[in-house]
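1st attempt posting a full record on here, be nice pls
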Amino acid sequence: MTANRAELTMTSVDDLSEAAQIAYRAFLDMRDSKTAHFSHLETIENKYESGGAPSFAENLQLEKLLAEHDKNVQAFQTAMAAVKKEEQKILVQLMS
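the predicted structure (as tokens):
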């Protein structure tokens, strides 16, 4: 294993710069909002697979979850742009 590869595997989020830590938290928010959106979508699909249609409230909730996820994706992209290239590589590994 090369020293560079060892560095990647030994690094904790806590060892990274503030910008990288912010990007990692943004990643976690993005991941969680994606999970929430898909979970609600799956619930609706399962509920109505035999027929019927989602209610206005169900669709509204789905829209809210998607909007939250979109906001989190944008925040993650902005946060990653502020991270130095060397740390971006480490973050990608931590996010995998």
